[in-house]
Amino acid sequence: MCVRSCFQSPRLQWVWRTAFLKHTQRRHQGSHRWTHLGGSTYRAVIFDMGGVLIPSPGRVAAEWEVQNRIPSGTILKALMEGGENGPWMRFMRAEITAEGFLREFGRLCSEMLKTSVPVDSFFSLLTSERVAKQFPVMTEAITQIRAKGLQTAVLSNNFYLPNQKSFLPLDRKQFDVIVESCMEGICKPDPRIYKLCLEQLGLQPSESIFLDDLGTNLKEAARLGIHTIKVNDPETAVKELEALLGFTLRVGVPNTRPVKKTMEIPKDSLQKYLKDLLGIQTTGPLELLQFDHGQSNPTYYIRLANRDLVLRKKPPGTLLPSAHAIEREFRIMKALANAGVPVPNVLDLCEDSSVIGTPFYVMEYCPGLIYKDPSLPGLEPSHRRAIYTAMNTVLCKIHSVDLQAVGLEDYGKQGDYIPRQVRTWVKQYRASETSTIPAMERLIEWLPLHLPRQQRTTVVHGDFRLDNLVFHPEEPEVLAVLDWELSTLGDPLADVAYSCLAHYLPSSFPVLRGINDCDLTQLGIPAAEEYFRMYCLQMGLPPTENWNFYMAFSFFRVAAILQGVYKRSLTGQASSTYAEQTGKLTEFVSNLAWDFAVKEGFRVFKEMPFTNPLTRSYHTWARPQSQWCPTGSRSYSSVPEASPAHTSRGGLVISPESLSPPVRELYHRLKHFMEQRVYPAEPELQSHQASAARWSPSPLIEDLKVCNCSAPDTGNMELLVRYGTEAQKARWLIPLLEGKARSCFAMTEPQVASSDATNIEASIREEDSFYVINGHKWWITGILDPRCQLCVFMGKTDPHAPRHRQQSVLLVPMDTPGIKIIRPLTVYGLEDAPGGHGEVRFEHVRVPKENMVLGPGRGFEIAQGRLGPGRIHHCMRLIGFSERALALMKARVKSRLAFGKPLVEQGTVLADIAQSRVEIEQARLLVLRAAHLMDLAGNKAAALDIAMIKMVAPSMASRVIDRAIQAFGAAGLSSDYPLAQFFTWARALRFADGPDEVHRATVAKLELKHRI
Ligand SMILES: Cc1cc2nc3c(=O)[nH]c(=O)nc-3n(C[C@H](O)[C@H](O)[C@H](O)COP(=O)(O)OP(=O)(O)OC[C@H]3O[C@@H](n4cnc5c(N)ncnc54)[C@H](O)[C@@H]3O)c2cc1C
Q1: Residue 839 — φ and ψ, nearest 5°?
Q2: What is the pLDDT of residue 700?
Q3: Mutation pick for ligand 1 pocket among 790, 874, 991, 1002 (CB with most ligand atoms within 8 Å)
Q4: Of ligand 1's atoms, which has the minimum distance to the CA of residue 781?
Q5: Ligand 1 centre and the CA of 715: distance in Å?
């Protein structure tokens, strides 16, 4: 089974191939334990329900917590709260109804988290048909137990549903006795309830075996003399039960079923073919079963004349040329077997479609153990370690195969594996994209810019995971590596990273069971870093530095696959709850992938050499048209353009001389343009600002405009790039990028302290297919500009949601009725025409629902994401003002005499110039560092640096400009020079994008959190 088909299951469960586990082996294990235990006879097996026959509430809670972003362990803690007298136990004894329980339980959880917790949805999930399903392995075991004449019972702490029936999602006919706490008014571990169960079975304690997942319940049973089995994992528990009972609890070949009608293959011609192939004369009937897995390439179990075989075929119908290439699977397994890699023994490839309708191949059925749970329950720590070491060793073996010697040089393209893979998965993701997932967008930008240089080309498995390995039943030895569907030639490190996915996923993750919440040291399982080191050591390679990249890519790939599942589920093949859950999983995994990208960014940043101004650097500051941009439209990003691998290692550029030649050229052109066209135009611009026509754009600016980098447009463009839908981008982003429209950002409100964005009160209410806005805003920069077409509006959609989920962002066209501009505000008397800073009322402003950005409740997140780039632009402008002020000051003090000598010869003036230069350079370095970190590791990772520059730059500029004003004398305050205006702007920027204190608080918080 390949990773794609594993996600195709409607209930998102692993499709495990225990099929390869020969049940004879299990019998062997069973009899071994039987002898060991002395072989007493039992007459009944008693099962707990939740955690034994169906998933436990704890496990369901963990899944639900991940999906609802509730801190892990909350539900379990609340269930245990109050012990015997807590709401859960009283509910189990039917002392309170389901409604009463949910009320109390909800209150308890909400008190614990200080926010409302939707426990009703947990209860619905717990009791849903999807979740509350008996484990097939238990159904099989019960059938076998009863077939042997033993009794079976359920002894469960259980509850009544709101319909007054007890919650029993089981087939009652499977049990002789059912004892439920809610019916008896007593719960386990009260001894009376065990006695009641035994009484109804008519047995002595020693004649029964009791299975439960809770130690306290087992302890009491054991005290009464009942034999007990602790259930961590149903499969392992059944094996233990088999050992006690002394007979097999499995029917037939595991994970197989009768062949589906639509999947039947002609038995007669297959039998004839196999007789010829195997050279056998007489056979009994051919037994044919179908494995549950192998949706992509149907897979069958065959038993003929005591031979256990597996047949894998192409699916019927018209196929894409490169898909379902079973010939490749056959080829690689045959070649690898010759190279000593453990693989199933392939017997024949039959490309003649007349035999069973499609080409197929046959291999031997490989007996052994497949470990489905990566935490390896029931094993000793040393055994676990040995299993992971064996996994690592076999991977090294695969990657050490001499391609030429085994004739696999043409099995795939040489080199460029990761770039091709990234392209493939980006394409797959785009094809199934349903809405913008910010982390996916960032990864799509980031991955191509940080491609590692491929060191080696080897066979890569493409889906190398623990559960694709068949192990020896007693030794930590891999007997066969399965599922070669995605194999090719490529970068071996991709396989190493992929085999560590489980290390970073929680054990409750519904698709891929993980171990990130397990104590690996205690379990004996090597941590991912150690696993990587182990690989490098075995391969004789230097330690892999950039494995965070490979992890980011592996999770990106999983997220792209999940998105495909989500899209298919939206087409109606699954329930809406299911679809919603899958959607959340994609986001969860993409965030994990992004975390690795951030870690990689930090690693590169830490190792980054600071460039010598004389040496070459590859750094650029703007990115041209993105090759990944799906619409082919222009894209804007603060991510640098890069030649893969080079730029990610490019040093921090600190002077124009160390810019790359094309960027240096751009820099000089811009400088020339400023000197020739912009500075000389300042007086004319000033007179326009003082004229009656000032609220219309100055024709001079329209003529000069080249950079299109004004606030708040750049921040809004960034917002649209990151979070906008394709339709939103087409409507708003393109005109903004082309400089044909302007925009504003409306967050601040006069009635609340807006430095805390969660205070924002303006209401956004749903009404049919519209949102209706009411609110009062002020300091809305740019709103008075006649070209302003878009207002990015922040308001509250749900005042009862958790604090950071109440706000949403809407795109409001400026010509929507109800937007009333009350007045322009002034900054020290400056109006900043024609954009201005407006005070505005929004009265019943109706906006179509599709104008919501990212979704309701995401406003805070968007505002945060937007501010990073916006802030750094402000800081860069401030450095520009400061440079300009210092240049004006220097010219002035050289030409003006006081007390018999030029001002420049006065000591205090010299000290001021020196001080200003130092302060500008200090701030510039910090800003460049922040920008570089944003490019390498993203805005989130650069949060501390962004807060630091916001603290530093405006006050630095205020001081530098103030010194220049002082040196100018009174003229510095006049509008004859730009200094007064610069000063005003620098002062205002100590508020705009949040006051200094808020940034200081952020710096201090991060300092205390991350540094010793
Ligand atoms: C020129 C200019 C342009 C602007 N443009 C826009 C715009 O386009 N869109 C928009 O929505 N807003 C804009 N603003 C508004 C700006 O974002 C807010 O003024 C800023 O967020 C502060 O909010 P407030 O004015 O409500 O101050 P308050 O939140 O009332 O804060 C007042 C003071 O309290 C103190 N304080 C606050 N928090 C803390 C803390 N954690 N620790 C210590 N002290 C604290 C600070 O001294 C702060 O100055 C602009 C402001 C200016 C001056």
Answers
A1: -100, 130
A2: 87
A3: 991
A4: 8
A5: 17
